[in-house]
Amino acid sequence: MTALTHFVGIDWSGAKGSRHAGLAVAVCEADGKAPQVIAPPSDRKAWSRTECANWIAAGMGLPNRSRALIGIDSAFSMPFVDKGSYIPDSGLPTTARGLWSALDSICSDAHDLYGGPFVDVNSDFYLRTNVRGSRFERRMRVCEQRAVDSRAGPCESVFHLIGPSQVGLSGLSTMRMLSGLVDASNISIWPYDAPDNDASVLVEIYAAAFAELGGHRGKMRDIAALNATLKNLGSDEMAQMPTTARAGEHAADALVTAAGLRMISTDRKYWHPPALSTKVRRTEGWIFGVV
């Protein structure tokens, strides 16, 4: 297997709209130097999800023969193992790949990979502001429950759409993106694909777990906190925070993710978590960094 040369951290956004202040991208090389924030190729102030997906598919502007590990802070699938179904009585496919395709079809008219129409179709299963679906349950994937049990992070159910910790809409938009990348010859999506070729590898991550691995909890709002975390992750320091606005917090998450991926990428245990069975691999996937 060709060695990894670059590490990409992406703080994702599931919000409605065309451009997203909450979507930030950072890249570092394998040499220990500080990661760098990447601006949208369009030169617009903020990324769109479609632009980010196209950037990944086109090779991320990296040199020829590069091989990246790309971590996205978002859910790649939904709970399945607990009920033998993503959403009972829905007729959805029984594999993650099938789910991505079906979800993208349901949301095909929604702009910039937005996943809201899927929630509308399955509203009985979701908890939204002032609306509790009649069949809502706080279901968790195997990896999410493992993250909670191991204190890697307080994961929230993808069916819970209230508050800043909710990841449901973010995950739906990411799954729409994955449906478009699944046949890309230069991308492997872990753990659904085995990363045993020369392709770059796309993984789901939990940014807060990398921050905690670097000795920090909560958002990073100043350069001292960011650099202390990067140093603990084996990285050189940054000269300054990317911005002083809220967007800088998202950029900090992306920077820490890139450095964290670089630090743990060669540790076999993260590629082979004990609870990652064949069934879990095919249906729910896993959060890279949770064991």
Q: What does this entry show, briefly?
A:
The protein has 291 residues and is an alpha/beta fold.
Your description of this structure?
The chain is α/β, with parallel strands linked by helices and 291 residues long. The chain has one domain. Helices cover 32% and strands 11% of the residues. It has helices spanning 49-57, 96-106, 116-121, 142-149, 168-181, 207-213, 223-232, 246-264, 268-271, 278-283; strands at residues 6-11, 24-29, 36-37, 68-72, 127-128, 131-132, 187-189, 200-204. A six-stranded mixed sheet has the order 3-2-1-4-8-7. The protein has a two-stranded antiparallel ribbon with strand order 5-6. Helix 1 runs parallel beside helix 5 (168-181), helix 2 packs across helix 5 and helix 6 (207-213) crosses helix 8 (246-264). The longest helix is centred in the C-terminal third of the chain and has 19 residues, at 246-264. The radius of gyration is 18 Å and the shape is globular. It starts with 5 loop residues before the first strand and ends in an 8-residue tail after the last helix.
The unreliable regions are: none
- C-alpha end-to-end distance: 22 Å
Number of E-type strands? 8
Based on Cα principal axes, name the global outline.
Answer: globular
Number of domains: 1
Comma- or semicolon-separated keywords:
alpha/beta, globular, 291 residues, 11% strand, two-stranded antiparallel sheet, 10 helices
Topology:
Layout: E1 6-11, E2 24-29, E3 36-37, H1 49-57, E4 68-72, H2 96-106, H3 116-121, E5 127-128, E6 131-132, H4 142-149, H5 168-181, E7 187-189, E8 200-204, H6 207-213, H7 223-232, H8 246-264, H9 268-271, H10 278-283
Parallel strand pairs: 1-4, 4-8, 7-8
Antiparallel strand pairs: 1-2, 2-3, 5-6
Helix pairs in contact: 1-5, 2-5, 6-8
